Amino acid sequence: MSTAPPKSALSTDEIVRLAASRPIVLVGLRGVGKSSVGRRLAAHVGRRFLDLDERLLRTAREAGHPAESIAVLYELVGPSRFRDLEAVALRQVLEPGILCVLATGGGAVERVDSRTWLLRAGFCVWLTEELPVIAERVRRDGAKRPALLGEDPVDELPALLRRREPLYRAVEHLVVAGAGRGVDEIAREIVERCGLAPAE
């Protein structure tokens, strides 16, 4: 099963305009490579890289929920409070309009208000990948990724994809398929399709 959707309906000019004027936000299922691609993309275009999971842990500490990892935080506060804190962290990053590259968590699209912020303030690149590739990455990461549906993090991937695919589709401005490629090749495709100037 592939996570690849139809190509975005935006024109090339619209893609170039939005990518140049907004934070570039990488969305997609856990394990598609958002953080790795995001770091490389940020280096290519000379933007700051931000990881929403790191910002979320800081937001949680400030709210009285210190946790050493996303998995621990999810278990500590439960899914509803976790998404509340994630929505706050997302808005804190997007509201100032800083031209960064942001890697989100796979479930950052779950809340309506978060999707509204992504559409209003970000340029969203939906990274997709074949499920067997994602499964192998999630399996390697082990306890770093919490089970969200009461199942094993690998076993629940097809159900997560079915639930979230319409949500990713709702916020994406550009779709990029990983197709098992390396991080640099994917990042360079984003740079080229967005017409972004390389860093000096």
Decide which structural class fits the backbone: alpha/beta
The tally of strands reads 5
Oligomer type: single chain
Count of alpha/pi helices: 8
Roughly how many Å is the radius of gyration?
A: 16 Å
End-to-end Cα distance, whole Å, is 40 Å
How large a portion of the residues is in β-strands, by DSSP E?
5-15%
The coarse silhouette is: globular
Low-confidence runs of at least 5 consecutive residues? 1-7
In percent, how helical is the residue content? 40-55%
Largest sheet: 5 strands, parallel
Name the descriptors.
single chain; 200 residues; alpha/beta; five-stranded parallel sheet; 53% helix; globular; disordered N terminus
Write the layout of secondary structure elements.
Layout: H1 12-21, E1 24-27, H2 34-45, E2 48-51, H3 52-62, H4 70-94, E3 100-103, H5 112-121, E4 123-128, H6 131-141, H7 157-171, E5 174-177, H8 183-194
Parallel strand pairs: 1-3, 1-4, 2-3, 4-5
Helix pairs in contact: 2-8, 3-4, 4-5
Task: Give a quick precis of the structure.
By secondary structure, the protein is an alpha/beta fold. It has helices at 12-21, 34-45, 52-62, 70-94, 112-121, 131-141, 157-171, 183-194; strands spanning 24-27, 48-51, 100-103, 123-128, 174-177.
How is this structure best described in words?
- It is a single chain.
- This protein is of the alpha/beta class and 200 residues long.
- Helix content is 53%, strand content 11%.
- Residues 1-7 have low confidence and may be disordered.
